[in-house]
Amino acid sequence: MWQRIIALVKKEFLTLLKDKQSRLVLIGPPIIQLLVFGYAASFNLNHVPFAVYNEDPGPAARELVADFRGSPNFREVARITRAGQIAPTLDDRRALLVVHIGPRFSRDLQAGRPADLQVLLDGRNSNTALIALNYVRSIVIRFNEHWAAGHGLAAPPAHLAVRAWFNPNLESRWFIVPGIVGLLTLVVTMMVTVMSVAREREQGTFDQLLVTPLRPVEILLGKALPGLLIGLAEATFIIALAVLWFRVPLLGSLATLYTGVSVFLLSAIGVGLMISSLSATQQQGMVGAFLFLVPAIILSGFATPIANMPEIVQKLTLLNPMRYLMIVLRGVFLEETPFSLLFAQLWPMALIGVVSLALAGWLFRHRMY
After folding, report:
1. Strands, sheet with 117-121, edge to edge from the N-terminal-most edge strand
2. Computed over its alpha carbons, how large is the radius of gyration of the chain?
3. DSSP 271
4. Which of 104, 115, 293, 322 could bridge across to 300 with cysteines, CB 3.0–4.6 Å?
């Protein structure tokens, strides 16, 4: 039995390696996508363009403006001299925010009275605006503490000390790159498996395969094993880049990580072979893979939390193996989560894999044209 399966696996690898398009799918796009996502996809804001409208020549106003200019998160792009310049500066996107210091700012602070500071934000991108506003708040809090300490004033009654667990520097790359491991592994594995049976049907060799001594389960294993091996190799390459190039910490066990990846590959291969079995041509297979990949990535929690989705959509994500893999990857990379706590994510992926592989095997013989 295993000799026949190994022979079929060798045939699959030879077909893939001889096909120039297949070689490009395996090597080029994953590297490019990893670099693009790793550097371009970020929730951090650096060098936020801002403008200052300062009506106060006093020392407090100068100190606050200096804090903004000295921050690595901000970059001054304009100095506004009259109120009429504020709206055009934001409308033309020259600045994301305008800091407006009123004429009594320093006098009110020196007299011990509260002083107002106005910040006008471009809210067209609400997420970016909220991140920039948090940066502004942190600068104002530090200014208040320094001003109180330097002028003998009572310190604020409560001092907020923040420590972020699992990601001390709040690097969004630490959150995104582990997810890319799952995303690119899914894309490559799906492309390989979706083209497998569809290519044979298109070339007219699949019917010949069915009349050989190979049983359906042997054909299934022969088609699935190349995808599993290629997926593991792809995942290993991306994990190595994530740790060595992007410096994302891998705190958990490699055994737990590879168990999660292997079980996920089982489900991805099953879905890919099922789509391939339903496709008469490679083009149909690619379209089917695309129709699966886009919802799978969107509903995986890769970029947006599943908890923020409507309840009916949250239930739909339970059928998505990527949802479970995201939890496994981020848990192993950042939280050092043990195998026992991740078992609840592993068995649904295994169930999806078994069901989809069984359906793919049934479709091998019962697919009607």
Report:
1. 74-79, 48-54, 97-101, 117-121
2. 28
3. H
4. 322
Alpha helices, H only, 41-83? 59-70
Cβ count near 89 (within 10 Å): 22
Given the DSSP bridges, would you call strands 97-101 and 48-54 parallel, antiparallel or unpaired? Answer: parallel
Average pLDDT of span 33-41: 71
Distance CA 90, CA 92 (A): 5
The position carrying tokens 């200019």 is 69
SS3 of 27, please? helix
**Could you give the angle at which helices 254-277 and 282-298 cross, rounded to 10 degrees?**
140
| DSSP reduced 3-state for 152 | coil
- Classified as helix, coil or strand, 164 is coil
Q: Tell me whether residue 367 is exposed, middle or buried, using C-beta atoms within 10 angstroms of its C-beta: 0 to 12, 13 to 18, 19 or more.
A: middle
Can you list the positions of beta strands (E) in 3-72? 48-54
* pLDDT tens per residue, range 172-215: 788 888 999 999 899 888 888 888 777 777 776 766 666 677 77
Report the C-alpha dihedral over residues 97, 103, 109, 114, rounded to 10 degrees: -70
Phi, psi dihedral angles at 73 (to 5 degrees) = -85, -10
Alpha carbon distance 346, 45 (integer Å): 35
Calculate the alpha carbon distances from 348 to 45, 236, 268, 314 in Å. 37, 23, 12, 15
Q: Residue 312: which of 299, 321, 325, 323 has the closest Cα?
A: 299
Which domains are present in the chain? 2-41+171-366 (no CATH), 48-150 (3.40.1710.10)
CB–CB of 250/239 below 8 Å? yes
362, 220 contact by CB (below 8 A):
no
CB-based contacts of 127: which residues, under 8 Å, 6+ apart?
Answer: 43
Q: State the burial class of residue 176 (Cβ atoms within 10 Å of its Cβ: 0-12, 13-18, 19+).
A: buried
8 Å CB contact between 144 and 156: yes
Contact 328, 301 (CB under 8 A): no
pLDDT at 30 over 60: yes
Nearest to 351 by CA among 266, 255, 293: 266
Query: Could you tell me the sign of the dihedral formed by the alpha carbons of 28, 34, 39, 43, in that order?
Result: positive
